[in-house]
Amino acid sequence: MMAISEQSHAELNTKKIGDVILDIQNISLRFGGVKALTDISFNVREHEIRSIIGPNGAGKSSMLNCINGVYTPSEGSITFRGQKFAHMNSRQVAEMGVARTFQNLALFKGMSVLDNIMSGRNLKIKSNILLQALRIGPAEREEIAHREVVERIIDFLEIQAYRKTPVGQLPYGLQKRVDLGRALAMEPQVLLLDEPMAGMNVEEKQDMSRFILDVNDEFGTTIVLIEHDMGVVMDISDRVVVLDYGKKIGDGTPDEVRSNEDVIRAYLGTSH
Fold this sequence. Notes:
Elements: H1 6-14, E1 20-31, E2 34-45, E3 49-53, H2 60-67, E4 75-80, E5 83-85, H3 90-96, E6 98-101, H4 113-118, H5 129-134, H6 138-156, H7 172-184, E7 190-194, H8 202-218, E8 222-226, H9 230-236, E9 239-244, E10 247-252, H10 254-258, H11 261-268
Parallel strand pairs: 3-8, 3-9, 6-7, 7-8
Antiparallel strand pairs: 1-2, 1-4, 4-5, 9-10
């Protein structure tokens, strides 16, 4: 486990949390006879960091997959900015302003850092494919504007030295940073992060935690985070929802969750 600086705690305590931006109501998900999620309800407020925790197989990634349209819930609804959906497809979700990183990296390993992050601008590009290929007129001007956005993200993530490097040649921690950059290139209102620190060492986790806090603070991006490192979760989260065997067993501030007897028995353990 690791701890974030006292300054981060102060930032979290003084930031302004807005109204509910994402409302999950009575979501159930079944695969044949297997229940992955059962009657899950929680909400996410604008500008907060909302973490989802639980043991392996608890249904955390399945919950994110329902939110961003990869899975269609068997029951329940999702309301985003006041608009209610029985389900949403992935493109619709992206167009509405929800971006996602995945637990397993799905980067274009042979492409440069810049081009990987540039791929996150796909939905923002208006020119047709032919004009893009020829790079003439409006298409060239549009590409220049998008590249300026990408360059700012590269600067923000402190990976300027690797901008032309094929992603496959980068250390794992930097590849995770590129994955975050590609999601940020979509300019999301809500950013879904599925174990962004999995497989990282302590220093890499500290860097990623700092970037997540900065994205939330400087960009005003609402973040939904799945993470197993409880030191990270308890330090950077505003609220935490706890899943176990596809059911919700806890929901509240980090302190409330930490002292919840059901959560302690199922996940945190008495040593925590």
